[in-house]
Structures are given as structure tokens and as C-alpha cells.
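Title: Comparing notes on inverse folding

I've been comparing how different people in this forum approach sequence design from structure. To keep things fair, I'm posting one structure and asking everyone to reply with a full sequence. Here's the target:
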């Protein structure tokens, strides 16, 4: 199964933190990850790998975002972000961050289920 193409599959984990350098150091030592830095439209993005497989991202908290502690988030692959958001709200969930296109990656949004759990959804253009 290709998690980047399978609707409903957990496909990515991402740490949003105040100190990416400290996070890179901690998780590299804890899990043996190698971490490379890439320049993305929103700034520096760190990709953690186990061997040759990318397993997670580490990024700095957006300066214009709401106050929040550092946290890990999960992404679930969907076939169509906009359709998923309509279904989410019809089922009693909320859209916390409207859809946005991530250059070279895909289209994403952040949702909240009726119990309050938060999750990101992504329709990948290229894995």
C-alpha cells in the first residue's frame, strides 16, 4: 500500500516547535534519525529519515499562528480535500484551517472531530 495515494491512510507526522535545532538533535539521538533541511515556500523544513525513508517533518511554529505549545500532528491522505471538508462538517466536525496548496506537495487542511481531536488531511500531488 502506498500511504501517499491511499485514501484514509496515515501518511505523515510533523512536529511544530519553537526550536527546530534542539528538536533535530533530540530526535536524532533518540531514534537514530538523519535530518536534512529543505527550503520551502513557508521557510526552512526539516525532513527526518530512517535509512532512506522519510518519516516525519520538523518545522518552526508560524509567527502569525495562535499561541500553542510545541506538538506533533498527523496527516491522513484523502482523494479530495474540499470534499473531505464538506463531509467533515456534515458529520459535526470543524475546519480549523481552510484548504491551502503546499507547493510541490499537495493540498491540505486541518480538521477537528466532534470530540475535539485535531488532524490534518492531505491530497498529495507527488509523494
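Reply #1:
Here's my take.
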Amino acid at each position: 500500500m502506498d500511504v501517499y495515494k491511499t485514501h484514509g491512510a496515515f501518511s505523515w507526522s510533523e512536529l511544530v516547535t519553537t526550536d527546530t535545532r534542539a528538536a533535530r538533535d533530540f530526535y536524532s539521538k533518540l531514534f537514530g534519525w538523519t535530518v536534512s533541511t529543505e527550503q520551502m515556500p513557508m521557510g526552512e523544513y526539516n525532513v527526518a529519515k530512517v535509512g532512506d525513508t522519510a518519516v516525519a517533518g520538523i518545522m518552526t511554529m508560524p509567527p502569525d499562528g495562535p499561541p500553542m505549545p510545541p506538538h506533533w500532528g498527523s496527516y491522513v491522505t484523502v482523494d479530495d480535500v474540499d470534499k473531505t471538508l464538506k463531509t467533515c462538517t456534515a458529520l459535526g466536525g470543524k475546519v480549523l484551517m481552510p484548504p491551502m496548496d503546499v507547493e510541490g506537495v499537495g493540498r491540505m487542511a486541518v480538521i477537528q472531530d466532534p470530540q475535539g481531536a485535531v488532524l490534518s488531511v492531505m491530497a498529495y500531488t507527488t509523494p
